[in-house]
Amino acid sequence: MDKRFSWDQMFVFVLVLMVGLFVSSPGSSASIRTSALPAETEDDIVFIHHSCGSAWLSNSLHVALLAKDYIDERNDITYGTDVSPDVGRPDSLSPTPGDRTNMNHWILWFNDYLDGARHHGSDTGFNRIVMFKSCYPISNVTADGAEPGDPFSSAQTLANYKAVYRHPDGPGHTYTRNSDIYRPLEDIFAQNPDILFIPVTAPPLHYAPSDATNDANAQRARLFNEWLKQDWLAGYDAAHPGLNNVAIFDWFDVLAYPDDHPDHPNRLREEYGGANGNSHPNSIANGYSTQVFATDPDNLLDRAWDAFVLGGSTSQKTASSSLAAYGQTITYTVVIRDIGAPLTATLDMTDEVPYGLTYVPGTLTATSGTYTDTYAPALYWSGVLTPTPYVSVSYTVTVTHLPSGTVALPRTNTAIIAAAGHAPVYLQATVWINPYRLYLPLLLKA
C-alpha cells in the first residue's frame, strides 16, 4: 500500500517540524552566544588555502561555515589572490601572495600581510577568524634539521617548521630578513587577541600506485603536527592564560592511517583516496572532515569559538540550557571583559531576573569584585578588570511559571554593564520555558 501526503498534509507536517525546533525536550546544555561588539565586527572568516581547501569548501565546508550564527561572511585567499602589504612592511610574497602557502610563507604572511588578510573580502567589520593551511606536499618532511632552524627556508625539516611558530630563544625574540624584523607566529597571535587563528595541518600523502613519500618523512609530518597541537599550543596557552585565540585543526590526523599502521603508516587512508595516485582528499574525506571540524556536536570550530569569546576580547552571557520546564534550574554566567573603559575604571553590572524565573538565594558568585542579591530579583556586581583579564559572574534560577497550553515561552535575561563616561553594554540570553513535547507519527512508504 502506498501512503502519500496531500499538499495540505505536507504543509501541516512541515509546520509541525518547524515548531518542534522550539519545543524539543529540555535538559540539553546550550551556550547562547552574545557579544558586546556590534554584529558586523565579529562574524567574518577568511580561509587562506589552495586546491585541497577549495574542494573541501565546495563539498560541504562552505555551507557548514555559513550556518554558524557567529559567521556572516566567508572570504577566501587562494590562487591568484593579490593582497597589499601592511603599512611599512615589504611586499615579500609578490607578485601574488595568494599563490604562496608553504610552511616558510606563513611567517611572511602574518608579519607583512596580516592587516590585509584581516580585512580581505569583508564588506563590514573584519575577519575575526583567520584560518590557514598549506597543501599536502609539505607533509613530506625530509629531515629533522638542525636547531635553531630557519623559518624562511624552503627546506622541509622539523627544525624549520618549528621556527615559524616559535623563536628558539623564546617569546619576544625576532628574526631578520633583508633588514626587516620578523616575529614568530606565536608573538603575532598574542599581539592580536581579537582574532581567532586556526592553523589547519596539511593533508597526508597518498601511498599508491606509487608512494608519494616514505615512512620516515611521513612520520616527521605527524611529529610536527603533534608538537604543534600539544607542546606548542600548551605552551602558548600557558603564556597567555584566558586568551584562547588559537585552535589547531589536525587535518592530517583526521585523514591519515595511524603511526603504527602495518602497511601505510601516516599516509592518506584508502577510503579517502590514498590508493588512487592523488593526494587530494576525496569527497568522502571532505564530508567527514566537515563533521569533525564544524558540524558534529563536539566539533572543533564551535569549541574554539566559545573558548575564544569567553577568553577573548568580548563580554558574553550564557545559560546552562536553552530549554527548561517548571521546577527545573538554569545557571546564568556573565563573563565581563574590556568594554572600552580603562582597566582600572569601576564597572557596574545590573541583572534583573525576568518574570517566570525565580532567583535561588545565595547562588550569586563572582571571581572578583563585590556583589549582592539583597534586592533580588535585581542582582548587582561592581569591580575592576585588573589585574585579572576578565570577571565571571554566575547565579542560578528556578522556572516557576506554570505550564500554559502548548506554547513554549521565551524568557530573555539582560545584564547591563556600565562604566562612567562609556556607553552601557547589554548582554542577553534567551531560554524557552515549559516546552511542549510533540510525538510525531512515523510514516512509511510501502
Could you characterize what this model shows?
By secondary structure, the protein is α+β, with helices and mostly antiparallel strands. It folds into 2 domains: 273 residues; 118 residues, Immunoglobulin-like, CATH 2.60.40.740. Helices cover 26% and strands 20% of the residues. The strands form 4 sheets. The protein has a 6-stranded mixed β-sheet with strand order 8-17-16-10-14-13, with no helix packed on it. Helix 2 packs across helix 9 and helix 5 packs parallel to helix 7. It is globular. The N and C termini lie close together (6 Å).
End-to-end span in angstroms? 6 Å
Within the largest sheet, what's the order of strands? 8-17-16-10-14-13
Count of DSSP-assigned helices:
10
By secondary-structure content and strand pairing, the structural class works out as alpha+beta
How many domains make up the coordinates? Answer: 2
- How confident overall, as mean pLDDT? 85
Q: Low-confidence parts lasting 5 or more residues at pLDDT below 50?
A: 1-42
**Helix residue percentage:** 25-40%
Largest sheet: 6 strands, mixed
Q: What general outline do the C-alpha atoms trace?
A: globular
Fraction in beta strands: 15-25%
Number of E strands: 17
What's the short story on this structure?
This protein is of the alpha+beta class and about 450 residues long. The chain is built from ten helices and 17 strands.
Give me some keywords for this one.
single chain; 446 residues; alpha+beta; Immunoglobulin-like; 6-stranded mixed sheet; 5-stranded antiparallel sheet; 17 strands
